[in-house]
Amino acid sequence: MRNACAGEARLTPVFGETGQWQGRVHSVFRQVVNVTFLLEGEARLVVLCGPGLPLLPDSIVLPQGWLEETALFPGAPVLLSPGELWARGRSITLLRDLKWDGFMPPLAGRPAAGELREIEKRCKNGFGSFPPVLRPRIEAALTDGSAQRWLGLGAGLTPSFDDACVGVMALCRAVGHPTPFVLEDLSMTTEVSARYLRLGQEGYYGQPLGRLVATLFYGGVEKAARELLAVGASSGADMLHGVAAALSYLKA
Question: Is residue 1 pLDDT above 50, yes or no?
């Protein structure tokens, strides 16, 4: 039985089974706190959150009220080990989630694209804010190898173009096909967006996106699409747009 007084860690293998990592709070929002850890010279963001939010890789779900009581602020030091989290004089035991870490293996079969395409046509995504004269080039960049040039395009912590790139990565990963672009410089976008792009490069995705991609193979697309579209202001719609773009690219 899960310990109600413990946190639940969904850390990717980059953090390892042993060790201790010193970090600092990157940003604080109403429901989540982002913490930056430096691992082998590379900054990695871990999301601290309360229960009830969609599952994310490299995240720690803490008991209700723990974050509020700890009152973290940007720059506050945080210490993490595989079994414990320390912040502002408080510590909490962490249990590793062995059932879900967000990793997506290749899926068997051929994705059913028709239903998702119809849903995507009805969605309003962030691409609508791009200049009409540039939009065809931006759309093409999702699958023609020029994505690096447009990285960071769009408003918010995770710009729309980046979110669509994550959607492309997820679908390509599911079918075992190389992603049609290489992102070598993630400094061109926000640190939060770089987190999700880096995780996508490594094969890790948030639960709503992973579930949507799986339903293309096993059924239940409409419900999964609703869950994904509820993510962020336009992030979910932008990721769905990327999945649809990848389906067209792969002629699925």
Answer: no
